[in-house]
Amino acid sequence: MTAPPPPTAAPSWPHCAHDADPVTDPVGCRGIHVPGHTACLAHLCDADRTAYLTGLAPGTDIDHCGTPFTQDLLSQLLTALIDPTTRLPHFGHAWFGGAQFTGDARFGGAQFTGDAWFGEAQFTGEAWFGGAQFTGDARFNGAQFTGEAWFGGAQFTGDARFNGAQFTGEAWFGGAQFTGDAWFDGAQFTGDAWFDGAQFTGHARFDGAQFTGHARFGGAQFTGHARFGEVQFTGDAWFGGAQFLTADRWGPLVCGGRVDLSGAVFGAPVTLEIAASAVWCVRTRFESTATVRLRRAEVDLGYAVLAAPVAVTAHPAPFDTTAGMVDESLLTGPDRVRVTSVQGVDAAHLVLTDTDLSDCLFSGAFHLDQLRLEGRTTLAPTPTGWHRKGIAPIRWTRRRTLAEEHHWRAQSAAQPPVPAAAPPEPRRWRNGPDHGDSARTPDPDDVAALYRQLRKAFEDGKNEPGAADFYYGECEMRRHDRTGTATTERHLLWAYWALSGYGLRASRALGWLAAAMLTTILLLMAFGLPASSPKQEATRTVPASGGPVTFIIDKQDPKNPVKDRFTTKRFDKALSVTLNSVVFRSSGQDLTTTGTYIEMTSRILEPALLALAVLAIRGRIKR
Length: 623
Fold this sequence. Notes:
The chain contains nine helices and 50 strands. The protein is α/β, with parallel strands linked by helices. The strands form six sheets. The protein has a 23-stranded parallel β-sheet that branches. The chain has a 19-stranded mixed β-sheet that branches. A two-stranded antiparallel sheet has the order 40-41. Helix 4 (444-460) runs antiparallel to helix 5 (464-480). Mean pLDDT is 88; it is low at 1-6.
């Protein structure tokens, strides 16, 4: 059958033309003639209609294209086709293209042995096809469903085509079985769309479909290719428990709400291109390689199962299609991809590129040392500005930190909770999802292990500055760990932190070096330099009986001056001794006994501080 014409043109089939008007409606009723008559089924006289319906038998081919059906008229037709064995309507080939169904259209449980064509049909009331069986092809291209459309449990053995169909009310396809290909290209779902438990054995295409309400594909099975190119979801899209067994490409897909892939199974290589407010992949199974390109999304990968490499990448610009750039007007969030959790994930197969990990939870993940962090990775900074701890003002060292450290410090500081939707405050530590519950907040020992593993990931990626920040974080957690770190070790870490920021803060080491040098200079001027250079004394001993004369040459002990200790001349000498001590050299300067010990101490301490400063600078610039 040919597609129905536009309303302003006459159809290609012989039509009823009832109520035709040369001015307002020259075509009139577009219903096809009932065989042997010049009117459609709706405008036959009662006797002719009764005779036609009486002559129908289950499995008869019927053609009522363009016919206007009231609920009563459709009920009469369905009654005439009831199979006495199943007590359900039984159609052969059925053509309802362009038909108008004013009341409820109840085709529930009907059997269509041949093709069923409802292209361009209009359903003003509810359309019931629940449990219907379509043995041939089922075509609903361009059909308009004003009320709810029920296809739950329907079986489509041939191809099912809903291209361009419009669903104003809710669309129910839960439990439907599509053995052939299912085409929903360009379909518009204004209400919620339910495909929970649907089975797609053939290819499933939703290219260009628009879902204004929520879309649910929970538990659906896609054995063939599943295509969701250029799909728009204004509400949430839920694919929880869905199974995708054939390799394919998703997207670009735009969703103003949340795309929920939790529990979904991807059995073959897949590429996902999604622009959404949130993408949930909790317990999602990737049995093969997957590339997930995202825009503006908040991603939760908690407890996902990665059997092969999976790359999550922040796409730098709106997705490009043959029709141009994808419209992202539905999305209002920042132009970044935030990963919020990789808990319970085997990170050996995970690659994160250009992602924001400021709020990402790593606790419980495996093989974090093998996680690959590519591109620009953003992590949460320490709080800014000056803070008061007791009576002393403090300022946190600027570094990249894990969310778990933020949560532990916020918990330890007893920070008041903030609303979940509130943006993070730069002057305070970020509260965790379990703020206030110390039993569920990671302790320093746990956080130290996370830093240790992720530090290796940065080192493997040749990112020494990033690894340095994580080494700092590891040492910080060990310093505060009162259960897994020995007291002596904690005291050493306190000293290491105070002197040089764990060998990573050159300014701190140089500051201590300057202080040590100044202290050495002052001590030398006060106690280390003698009042004057010791003079040699020669003592002669002349034997009384004559003979050789013996000379004894001795040196006076250096003595501290009584006054004028802090003079320019003494400063120069003290500076010379101190500078030689920094480079572990002896100045050769005469010193008092106290000055000798001062020089020995400075020759041990100051070179060590200089070495720590050099080590810190190297850690920051090495690649």
